Amino acid sequence: MSKVNNAGIFVSLGKAFVVALTIACIGVSGAFGQGGTMTTVRLGDQPGAEVDYAAVWVAEGLGYYAQEGIRIDRRTYANGPAALLDMPSGSVDAVLAAIVPFMQFVARGGDLKIVMSVTKGNAALVGLKKYTSYKQLDGVKVGTPGIGTVHDAMLGYAEQSMNFKVQRVFGKITDIAVMIDKGEVDAFIGWEPASAIAVAHSDKIHYIAQLPPIKNAESLELAFSPKMVSEHPDTIVKFVRATLRGIDYIRTQPKEKVAELLAKKMNDPSAVPIILNAMGSVILTDPRLDMPSTRILLQTIAKQGKIPEDLVKDTDGWVGKYVDYSYLDKAQASLK
After folding, report:
1. Residue 190 near residue 124 (C-beta atoms within 8 A)
2. What's the fold here for domain 124-209?
3. Distance CA 149, CA 293 (A)
């Protein structure tokens, strides 16, 4: 059963992190099959996120992980920061989340290895139809899925670069349409297909800006826990290889076929048109981080006081400590 964690922001890791890390080192309970041929990977992600993690769910739907001897145990959290809070305790083996929460996590003492990128873009701004640009939101109540998310950072970049200021309201990504209908917010920045679902279900809402204000904006990555890196590196290569096959399917097949697989994952065959709309918000076929946009995002959150500014004096060097492309290189070589 998926675990839902409603934590919306990072908390101080401090002593709790040390204790949790000690627990994690004892062993990953139930993560690996006993005597069987299948390896279970407990994967943290977010609700309403089937499109932005399309490479993974397409690969799963096509049986690519099963062919590698891997079974995914999906564990759903309110947002990326919430999922990462469970990594030190050993509750998850891997997390799908964005570059901003990953780097905030390590800035606060956490540890992980980012092995590949899965999504660019993925910061759709939706809201009342009277709004058609970011700058029109000056002084307006705008929802975000959490202070530690890449979406909140993207909104911060828009404010900094376009010289306006919104009133932030934090809320669940699945409640976009309800929040706007109730007048709690006039707009919301979030991920897909949750944003497209909100647009489809309310005649008041449209995409104010479907793509973020940063070109080829780095969004989401796949990261594994230190225990997985230490004890099960071959499993990571297999997981990445299956994911690359999912990317190749997305790259080479009609969007309708991709949408059908994602609708099946959502248990809603009627969602195909919504998914096709949501796919206009994301880039799903580049497995390496876009460093120009990564620098901008991390410098943005440093200006917001979310991480120490010293860390972004050499952004590439800092990020490089937590990105390991060796698994990706091995997986790509094996597919040639």
Report:
1. yes
2. D-Maltodextrin-Binding Protein; domain 2 (3.40.190)
3. 15
Residue 73 corresponds to which amino acid? D
φ/ψ bin of 216: left (φ > 0), alpha (ψ from -120 to 50), beta (otherwise): left
Query: Is pLDDT at 1 greater than 60 in this prediction?
Result: no
**Domain boundary assignment for the chain:** 14-121+218-335, 124-209
- Cβ-based burial of 256 (10 A; exposed 0-12, middle 13-18, buried ≥19): exposed
Question: What are 45's strand-pairing partners?
Answer: 76
What is the C-alpha separation between 299 and 307, in angstroms, rounded? 9
103 in Cβ contact with 111 (< 8 Å) = no
pLDDT band at 37 (very low <50, low <70, confident <90, very high): confident
Whether the model clears a pTM of 0.85, i.e. scores above it, the answer is: yes
Phi, psi of 126 (to 5 degrees): -115, 155
b/e per residue 28-56 (b: at least 16 CB within 10 A)? beebbeeeeeebbbbbbbbbbbbbbbbbb
State how far the Cα of 57 lies from the Cα of 75, in Å rounded to an integer.
Answer: 13
Largest CA distance in the chain: 60
Residue 79 CB contacts under 8 Å (≥ 6 apart), including other chains: 8, 46, 97, 101, 145, 146, 148, 149, 173
- CA-CA distance, 83 to 164, in Å (whole number)? 31
Cβ neighbours of 313 (radius 10 Å): 11
Higher-pLDDT residue of 2, 183 = 183
% of the chain surpassing 70 pLDDT: 89
| Cα(49)–Cα(54) distance, integer angstroms | 8
Identify the CATH class of 14-121+218-335: alpha beta
The three-state secondary structure class of 42 is strand
Q: Is the dihedral of CA 252, 257, 263, 264 positive or negative?
A: negative
Identify the bridge partners of residue 220 per DSSP, sorted by sequence position: 98, 119
> Helix 291-303 vs helix 99-107: angle between axes, to the nearest 10 degrees?
50
